[in-house]
Amino acid sequence: MPQCRAAPKRSRLKRRPEMKPGKTRRPMAEGALFLLWASFVAAGCAAVASVLYALQPRFRLVWSTGRVEATEPPLPAPDPVPLRSPTLGGIATLSVWAAAGLGIVGLVMRSLALNHAPYSNLFEFSMSFGIAIVLLYGIFELRSGTRLAGAFVLPVACGLYGSALAFPSQGQEILVPALQSPTLLTIHVALMILSYAVLAVAFGAAAMHLVQGFPLRVEQLGGRYEWLPSAQRCDELTFRAVLVGFPLLAAGIALGAFWANDAWGRYWGWDPKETAALVTWLIFATYIHGRGLRQLRGARKAWIVVMGFFAVMFTYLGVNLWISGLHSYAGV
User: In the 8-state DSSP scheme, what is residue 206?
Assistant: First the structure.
């Protein structure tokens, strides 16, 4: 009597119909690519303007140039005059929102052209990550009322934009089976990118905290000025950002485990990227726990956030580029 083999386990999730080769909406894809690079240019302008705005002296001391006789008492120096240019700050803010708007429209157009969300390769990952950082920094700027964090956050976004140059920009029309769970996977990837972007903003605030801890004062016309918010203010901004990014990261990891069970038949397999994401989560959990118990003081809190963001970058790019695993599906 012939033996019957059990049918292979079928995914519980609905798969997206595959697009036939050659069905890509080429004009829309090219337009999307143009908008993405325009977003890169706008983000670069925002980064340059933010750095110049931050480095601009807050006060200028204007000294009298008149000749003074020796018998006369010296003229007192005038009061410092605020120098931070609202025009330069406005250019930075306008460029941030232009980069975010162009990038979002470009990603939507690319998704429509390729019939899937922009996560098929590292070009799309890098662009999405950079755009998310710019967008969330813009929201952070509105909420916090300070533009100075942009000098630290926006160069990171530009670095991600620039890293996309190293990867092919042509999207994949037909995805591998593991990526054909559009709804669940799209939410998982979106949560991870958003959490990483918020933690990038936290990194910028932590970097301000560390720099503020140094005796960094710039001499300008015989006077001194402080160019960053107070260390306490930087610490508050860092903590607020981490409180937003941490639960997003936890939700992204949990949803990824659920998707992994559908795609590979197990919730957790200690894949390199899974492990790196867990380590990143533990670093930020340590920060929140230590700060809540007041066991972390001063610059140590900021150093943990900086270390956590380096873990984010290793999880995001290092695992894909240097370590093989199940998450290497995107390739380069």
Answer: H
